[in-house]
Amino acid sequence: MMRTTKVVSITLPPALFEQAQALAREENRTMSELLREALRRYQRERFFEKARAHMEAVADKVGVYSEEDVVRVIREFRRETALANEKPVPANAQ
Q1: Helix or strand or coil: residue 75?
Q2: Are residues 20 and 35 in contact, defined by beta-carbon separation less than 8 angstroms?
Q3: Given this model, what pLDDT does residue 88 score?
Q4: CA 15, CA 39: separation in Å to the nearest integer?
Q5: Residues 6+ apart with CB under 8 A from 26
Q6: Which of 65, 70, 73, 92 is least surrounded by CB atoms within 10 angstroms?
Q7: Rg for the chain (alpha carbons), in Å?
């Protein structure tokens, strides 16, 4: 039967190892569970950091630096969308 997990060996400074053991005991988890959760949280944090950095670059390009700027850009977008969706009135319909 194949394992569905991989075994990994890591090194920790003694103080960090003791803190991890204490935390695992406190939360009634294994060290593996504790470290898996730590990695998941780290991945999530990195994802949001990258997304924030990307959106800051986009915001700089369109001139959004405050909540008021967000409101302004949304209003401009809605106005432009409404104008683009208006059907021209045929000249003979007036």
Answers
A1: helix
A2: yes
A3: 64
A4: 19
A5: none
A6: 92
A7: 27
Residues 15-68 have pLDDT tens digits of 999 999 999 999 999 999 999 999 999 999 999 999 999 999 999 998 899 999
80 vs 19 pLDDT, higher one: 19
Place of tokens 């319909």: 93
Q: Which residue type occupies 88?
A: P
27 near 34, Cβ under 8 Å? yes
Q: Residue 83: phi, psi to the nearest 5?
A: -65, -40
**DSSP class of 27:** T
For residues 41-52, one letter each, b for 16 or more C-beta atoms within 10 angstroms of the residue's C-beta and e for the rest, the string is eeeeeeeeeeee
